C-alpha cells in the first residue's frame, strides 16, 4: 500500500471536513487468525488533536492504524472517520497516511510524483507550498531511486499532505531519521497540525511523543491501557528519582535500598541514583544521615510510565 494509493481521492474533497470526530472506533476487535489481536477498542479523536499511539512491539498499533484506514475490516465493532466509513473518507480526500511499508514509485522524479498526486485533489497545496512545508524543494528534480532514507521520508510526507487531508495518519514516521532530520520533520508536522487538522501517529520515540503529542493512547496486548496527555500519563507512575553525590567510603547500594521510600538504588562514578516510591521519605532519610550532597529530584519520565504501565499486563 502506498501513500498515493491510500490517498487516492475522487476529486470531491470538500474544503471543510464534515462535522464530527476525526476518528471514532467503537468496540472494535480484530484478529489475523483465530486469536484476537485488538480487543474492544474505543477511541474518539477530535479535529485538531495530535495523538500518539504508544505500545510495546506487537501491541497492535499498526493493526489499529490498518483498521481505522479501512485496510483491515473489524471482526466486530465500527470505525468511522468524520462520520464516514474509512474508504469513503479516504476517497473524499479527508484522510492520508504514511505507513511503514510505503514505497515510492521508482524512476519518477519527486516533482512528477507531486504533480501527479496534486492532480487527484480539488484543492491541493501549490508545489511551492508543499515543497516548503515538507522541505523537498531541493529534491524536485531527483528520481526517487537515489534518495536517502530521510529524503524519501520527506517525500512521503509531502505526498501525504499535498491534498490537505483533515486527518493525517503516520506509522512510525521518524524511524529512519537522524536527530536533525527528525527535528525538521516534527517542525513540518507541528505546522500542519496547527491548522486544526488531526494527526495520529505511532511511535517508539518517547521523547518525541512527549514533545509533540497532545494526547497519548497506550496499547498493550491489543487493549487501551492508558489515555491522557503526556503529563497525565507521566503522573500515573508515582516513582520519582533522587540523585546525590556519594563519597568513596559513603553508603553502598545495599544500604541505600534499605532507606524508607526507596525502591531501588544504583551507585556509579560517585553518584547514587534512587528510584523512590516516596521521594519525601527518601530525602528525609538522606538528610538525617547527612547524605544530601548535590541533590536532584526528578519526576518520573514518560519512559518510566510506559515501562510501568505495560510491564504489569
Ligand atoms: N499480517 C499479519 N498476519 C498475522 N499476524 C500479524 C500480522 N500483522 C501483525 N500481526 C500480529 O499482530 C500483533 C500486533 O501486531 P502490530 O504490527 O499491530 O503491532 P505493533 O504494535 O504495530 O508492533 P511494532 O511496534 O512491532 O510495529 C502481533 O502479534 C503481530 O505478530
From TrEMBL:
<dbReference type="GO" id="GO:0005524">
    <property type="term" value="F:ATP binding"/>
</dbReference>
<protein>
    <submittedName>
        <fullName>ABC transporter ATP-binding protein</fullName>
    </submittedName>
</protein>
<dbReference type="Pfam" id="PF00005">
    <property type="entry name" value="ABC_tran"/>
</dbReference>
<keyword id="KW-0547">Nucleotide-binding</keyword>
<dbReference type="GO" id="GO:0016887">
    <property type="term" value="F:ATP hydrolysis activity"/>
</dbReference>
<dbReference type="InterPro" id="IPR017871">
    <property type="entry name" value="ABC_transporter-like_CS"/>
</dbReference>
<dbReference type="InterPro" id="IPR050763">
    <property type="entry name" value="ABC_transporter_ATP-binding"/>
</dbReference>
<keyword id="KW-0813">Transport</keyword>
<dbReference type="InterPro" id="IPR003593">
    <property type="entry name" value="AAA+_ATPase"/>
</dbReference>
<feature type="domain" description="ABC transporter">
    <location>
        <begin position="23"/>
        <end position="246"/>
    </location>
</feature>
<feature type="region of interest" description="Disordered">
    <location>
        <begin position="1"/>
        <end position="20"/>
    </location>
</feature>
<keyword id="KW-0046">Antibiotic resistance</keyword>
<keyword id="KW-0067">ATP-binding</keyword>
<dbReference type="GO" id="GO:0046677">
    <property type="term" value="P:response to antibiotic"/>
</dbReference>
<dbReference type="InterPro" id="IPR003439">
    <property type="entry name" value="ABC_transporter-like_ATP-bd"/>
</dbReference>
<dbReference type="GO" id="GO:0005886">
    <property type="term" value="C:plasma membrane"/>
</dbReference>
<dbReference type="InterPro" id="IPR027417">
    <property type="entry name" value="P-loop_NTPase"/>
</dbReference>
